[in-house]
Design brief:
There is one protein chain. This protein is α/β, with parallel strands linked by helices. It is 30% helix and 17% strand. The protein has a nine-stranded mixed beta sheet with strand order 15-14-13-9-12-11-10-16-17. A hairpin with a 5-residue loop joins β1 and β2. The radius of gyration is 22 Å and the shape is globular.
Length: 478
């Protein structure tokens, strides 16, 4: 009871601080002792003090990528299971850094010493950590997709605008060659009049081969002694612990993850979405759903995302393919499907080559482009056409900073985040709508102006999702 009362008081205090953060007169001290605004910036010669939420698996990779820039101090480590095998590498790297199992306690104890927060936790937990961090004036780097529900992403975008902090979604290719090439080619008119894009991820997923005829969630297992299960659940509805919910398995379940689309969509569609000004679709059509059930993601999906005409740009349809054998057709002269060697390894091993490696095909009026995922650049196909266009292609500038350095420099006021929430938010909401089409196995008709689903009250209600558990409601008011 005392712990519950303490948390309630903390959140009330947080709400008060959040309201004050809108006024520039509010000041705090950084760990170096200098007085800075609540939405604070590290100075040019000062490292950014970073707190890390999620220190194993992908979270651990992010921590090392941030640390290796030389621009960050790791000042706090937070994970719901400090005794897990996958957390030990980071704990060993930073043995003297304070450790927490609950991000709320971390902020309560160390808030004044933190400039920025890394959020490398399951999709369903992105929202509360991010909202609390932003409300306290902390810059935030959050893994893709931004959040599990459409409404959570909407609130995160509004929060970033309200609290004026640096925000970055972790689709790291957005700071690599693909980003700068797509931008340069679009501005030069090389990529234009795009009417169709094929996006595909046909690698084996964790849930492939599971029994799609199940009628209940797993019955539950004993909770590991080192795991704070209630905190792991976050605002999600209660589930008994099961090993198939943790360590990446959360991505399989609608209640916790965003499936193959949420995992890979941002690495494949991101630059097209930004530089073709796609915004939100007016319709998402589940062309194919193989192995549908209401608990976890299909064995294969084909989704058609339909975008309206935008200024001088024509209507465009992105067709998404996932599933081992659900491979899209490719145009003549496509050539070899290559796997980007810089893709980070998954927590259950390295990315395995598929029948068609992750990527996209972009169909313009006059040209067709082939691309991979992450930072992979586009090529014009067929080869004969590429040769003809060679002299007409603009110079592509080199990236001044990778995705992690870009975020830290933004925390210092020296660059602008390339995948800030205003850019990454609508992209994430595209995936939120796609997941609803998968989960309900129905066409989604969407009003882009009112941001509502017009053909199903159930689907429209699911934009918000189930009510958060008791004592997690306050995060939706920050």
């Amino acid at each position: 009871m005392k712990q519950d009362e303490s948390r309630r008081k903390f959140l009330k205090k947080t709400l008060a601080i959040s309201a004050a953060a809108a006024f520039p007169s509010m000041m705090v001290k950084s760990v170096s002792g200098s007085v800075l605004p609540i939405s604070k910036l590290a100075s040019a010669n000062e490292r950014v003090n970073v707190a890390c939420c999620g220190i194993g698996n992908r979270g651990g990779q992010i921590i090392m990528d941030i640390y290796n820039t030389g621009l960050a101090n790791i000042v706090a480590l937070c994970d719901v299971d400090m005794g897990a095998k996958h957390t030990q590498n980071v704990l060993g790297k930073f043995p003297k850094v304070p450790r927490f199992q609950d991000f709320r306690k971390m902020f309560d104890k160390m808030g004044s010493q933190i400039d920025a927060v890394l959020v490398g936790v399951p999709d369903h937990s992105h929202f509360p950590i991010t909202m609390l961090a932003m409300s306290l004036g902390k810059n935030v780097y959050v893994e893709k997709p931004m959040a599990r529900t459409f409404n959570e992403v909407e609130l995160m975008m509004k929060g970033a605008e309200k609290y004026k902090v640096a925000t970055q979604m972790g689709n790291q290719g957005h700071s690599d060659a693909n980003y700068f090439q797509f931008k340069a080619w679009t501005e030069a008119g090389i990529i234009k009049d795009v009417t169709a894009i094929t996006a595909h991820m046909n690698g084996a997923r964790r849930w492939h081969g599971w029994d799609t005829g199940i009628t209940n969630f797993p019955s539950g297992m004993p909770i590991p002694e080192t795991l704070a299960w209630d905190t792991w659940l976050s605002a999600a509805k209660y589930h008994d612990y099961d090993k198939d919910y943790i360590n990446g398995q959360w991505r399989c379940w609608y209640d916790f993850g965003m499936g193959a689309l949420g995992d890979w969509g941002a690495h494949i569609m991101d630059t097209a979405h930004q530089f073709l000004d796609l915004g939100l679709p007016y319709e998402v059509d589940p062309v194919k759903i193989e192995g549908h059930n209401k608990f976890f993601f299909p064995q294969a999906s084909t989704l058609a995302f339909k975008f309206p005409k935008r200024g001088k740009m024509p209507k465009c349809v992105i067709t998404w393919y996932d599933g081992v054998n659900n491979v899209p057709s490719v145009p003549e002269g496509y050539g070899v499907s290559e796997l980007d060697p810089n893709i980070p390894a998954a927590s259950n091993g390295k990315i395995q080559p598929a029948k068609l490696n992750p990527g996209k095909i972009i169909y313009g009026k006059d040209l067709t482009f082939k691309g991979g995922s992450h930072g992979s650049t586009l090529s014009i196909i067929p080869a004969e056409k590429a040769k003809e266009m060679e002299s007409k292609l603009p110079a592509v500038p080199a990236s001044p900073s990778n995705h992690f350095k870009n975020f830290l420099l933004a925390c210092k006021g020296q660059e602008k985040c390339r995948s800030s929430f205003d850019i990454a938010g609508p992209l994430s909401q595209v995936f939120n709508l796609g997941v609803l089409a998968q989960q309900l196995n129905m066409k989604i008709k969407f009003d882009r102006k009112t941001k509502t689903i017009t053909n199903s009250k159930l689907a429209n209600d699911m934009l918000v999702g189930t009510a958060p558990r008791k004592e997690w409601e306050e995060f939706y008011k920050l």
